[in-house]
Amino acid sequence: MTQSTGLFITFEGGEGVGKSTQIHRLADVLRRRGHDVLVTREPGGSLGAEAVRHVLLSGAAEEFGVRMEAMLFAAARSDHIEQVIRPAVAEGTIVLCDRFMDSSRVYQGITGNLEPQFIQNLERIAVNGMIPDLTLVLDLPASVGLGRAKAREGKDAAPDRFEKEEVSTHEKRREAFLDLTRTEPERCKLIDATQAEDLVALAILAEVDSLLHEGTTDEPAKGQKA
Ligand code: TMP
Q: How far apart are the CA of 33 and the centre of ligand 1, in A?
């Protein structure tokens, strides 16, 4: 099909919830249907942002405090949006992004204890109007997700700056992501990631399809005849 404007879809959730597997599965389905798809991630996704990614995930910025980290995430996000995401969506691409502004709200805002006004101001400047059309929140008990992340990385691999935190901190993040699906139900859709991988993929596709059917004139809306 032809598509005049692209879409911006983000994937959020705690550690090890299966975002990256599901993003690649969704990208395959959409490409087979003829869409242009770009898979990207945060922190990172552009040259400038990838340079900042290492500083953040290695923990090199941790000693300078959570405000500094929040500003680095925002700087990386701004570069990623202006260099990659906005131009791709303008060309009609469906952009699938592994983490975005909601991760900053949850990790730096809620569990980093930063003032909401500070996080909101940073978000407004970094995002600069590029709000996701759809955010899929993959939900799983924190202990299960951390176990999966560990298994994926190998039992001897050192956890990154955020993975190494207490399970209770990760549970708080899970609750904060769930809150987003309640406070912004139009944009943020809850996906039960405890299900089998195929069922998670189907649930995600159902949300994406309802967005595609709403936003295009060349596909019938749900329940309408073609
Ligand atoms: P990941 O590539 O394994 O998802 O690692 C990214 C880590 O960075 C993850 O622990 C979440 C964290 N993060 C934040 O704390 N704030 C943010 O804004 C983003 C995008 C990620």
A: 30
Cα of 44 vs centre of ligand 1, distance in Å, is: 10
Cβ neighbours, 10 Å, residue 120? 12
Helices (H), 19-166: 19-32, 47-57, 66-80, 86-90, 101-103, 116-127, 142-153
Average pLDDT over residues 91-116: 98
In the chain, what are the domains?
7-212 (3.40.50.300)
Encode pLDDT of 148-194 as tens digits.
999 998 888 998 999 899 999 999 999 999 999 999 999 999 999 99
Ligand 1 residue neighbourhood (C-beta within 6 Å): 15, 42-43, 57, 73, 99, 103-104, 107-108, 162
pLDDT digits (tens, 9 = 90+) for 25-43: 999 999 999 999 999 999 9
Give the side-chain half-sphere CA count within 13 A for 194.
Answer: 5
Distance CA 97, CA 40 (A): 5
Question: What is the DSSP code (8-state) at residue 108?
Answer: I
Q: What spacing in Å lies between the alpha carbon of 107 and ligand 1's midpoint?
A: 8
